[in-house]
Amino acid sequence: MDIDKISFNIILLILIVALIFYNLWKIYQNENDLVISNDKAAEFAVAKTRFLTTMSHEIRTPLNSVIGFSEQLSQSALSKDQAAQLTAIRSSSAMVLDLVNDILDFSKYEAYRVNLEIAPFSLMDCISEVVHIMAIQAVQKGIELKTDISFGKDFCVVGDTLRLKQLVMNLLSNAIKFTERGSVKLKADVKLTKGNQLILKAWIIDTGIGIDEVNLGRIFDEFAQVNYLPSQFRHKGTGLGLAICKKIVEFQNGEINVVSELDKGSIFSFSIPYEICDNKISAVESPPTIDLATLVGKRILLVDDNIMNILLAQTVISKHQLFADVAYNGQEALALFEQNQYDLILTDIEMPIVNGVVLSKAIRSCSDAVKRNTPILGVTAHLLAEDRLLYKSAGMNDLISKPFSEKELMDKIALQFT
Ligand code: ADP
Q1: Residue 377 burial (C-beta neighbours within 10 Å; 0-12, 13-18, 19+)
Q2: What is the distance, to the nearest Å, from the Cα of residue 303 to the centroid of all Cα atoms in its chain?
């Protein structure tokens, strides 16, 4: 082989190696860009969730007053007109609350901030409970609600019962909402798979208005609402229900589908794998009966920087003959706490100067053992699990979500004394 040929081959080899390296570098660059853009997307989703959580807090706080005071007003003597106006206020504020909850829920799934519960539960009990609630709506519309469930009551699986309830509730509520005559049927079946796994399959079948082909393809997208709906069906939801259903199912490695025909009806179906539970489910403990009369005379320290919230809590607790002292931030609360002996502290979380978390920690480190153990109830609009964990680890015994009803507040207070 002559020198020229050898150098040509070497140059060719160098070129090929350079080309391979160049391509490898390009692939690395692209991968890197992809990782960066994925990281950015994830960061964005987390930021979005934080933003929505903050917004939901801001909306929930005044909503707490609207819902709470309308509940109090509804218990007073009202004229027919006033009662009708109050009903409108109550149902509008309930709709705003639903909207806030849906947006918050959806954003949690988008940011993968959903913690699935893993606990044994009865599939049959879980589904029947929802059917039972939805039957009232079906009766009101004159629609038959049928069930065809192939498994028994003590069929136990491990998973998230609340998510399954939310899913079935959304699908059944849509089916009833979009059906004017005929029936809605829930069919459920299980298929045993490998090991101790099974797949729950369910179909929600309605004889309602149906969905056309164009809309069918995007029906699980967020904010999807079909635009040809007759007026009686318009503006009755957020368009987030099905998007949340899809997230619930996919988070549990399941599938959700729909087939539909305009003016004939729709069949929404889903399947979710579950692990079969070996133990029988222990009978659900019935909540302790709460005698509110035992609370008469108890002394409560109310801590909140929002005067409306204070007024609402005061109205409720004084109605049940408990006494309340008021502090508008954690610092004022600590001063009162030093001077007096309280049976319970009900505190907001976000407050100026000293917030509810710092206040709780300060109370838990008090040198007086009796005072140190005063029950603390946190009032929060934050629904993220991580926030709740933080509040509990700061020393709060329990949390109550804004907006709360009179019963919810009094039950939570009473639970601290059982
Ligand atoms: P919304 O809260 O607005 O009902 P969903 O995501 O639950 O939002 O539903 C989106 C849209 O899908 C609805 O507005 C409706 O147009 C359509 N849809 C959902 N379920 C049904 C059904 N069973 N029959 C007919 N249309 C339906």
Answers
A1: buried
A2: 26
Cβ contact 64:312 at 8 Å: yes
- CB of 179 shorter than 6 A to ligand 1: no
For residue 90 the two structure tokens come to 């109550």
Q: How far is CA 44 from CA 103, 107, 111, 112, 248, in A?
A: 16, 11, 9, 12, 21
How many angstroms is it from 69 CA to the middle of ligand 1? Answer: 32
Q: Is 225 in the pocket of ligand 1 (CB under 6 A)?
A: yes
Task: Give 376's strand partners.
Answer: 345
Closest CA to 218 of 235, 193, 243: 243
CA pair distance 355, 303, nearest whole angstrom: 10
Ligand 1 contact, 95 CB (< 6 A): no
Query: Residue 32, class by beta-carbon neighbours within 10 Å (0-12 exposed, 13-18 middle, 19+ buried)?
Result: exposed
Distance 106 CA to ligand 1 centre (A): 16
For ligand 1, atom 9, name the residue with the nearest CA.
Answer: 239
Q: What is the spatial distance between Cα 358 and Cα 302, in angstroms, rounded to a whole number?
A: 16
How much distance in Å is there from the Cα of 208 to the middle of ligand 1?
Answer: 11
Element (DSSP H or E) covering residue 379: strand 376-380
- Tens place of pLDDT per residue across the chain (418 aa): 565 666 677 677 777 777 776 777 777 777 777 777 777 777 777 777 777 777 777 787 788 888 889 888 988 898 988 888 888 888 888 878 877 877 777 777 776 667 777 888 999 999 998 998 888 889 989 999 999 999 887 789 999 888 899 899 999 999 999 999 999 999 999 998 888 899 999 999 999 999 988 888 888 887 656 655 555 555 456 678 899 899 999 999 999 999 999 999 999 999 999 999 876 555 445 556 667 888 899 999 999 998 888 999 999 999 999 999 999 999 999 999 999 999 999 999 988 899 999 999 999 999 998 999 999 999 987 666 678 888 999 999 999 988 788 888 999 999 998 8
Is residue 178 lining ligand 1, measured as CB closer than 6 Å? yes
Distance CA 291, CA 414 (A): 8
Rounded distance from Cα 272 to ligand 1 centre (Å) = 21
> Measuring from atom 25 of ligand 1, which residue has the nearest CA?
210
**Closest ligand 1 atom, CA of 206?**
23
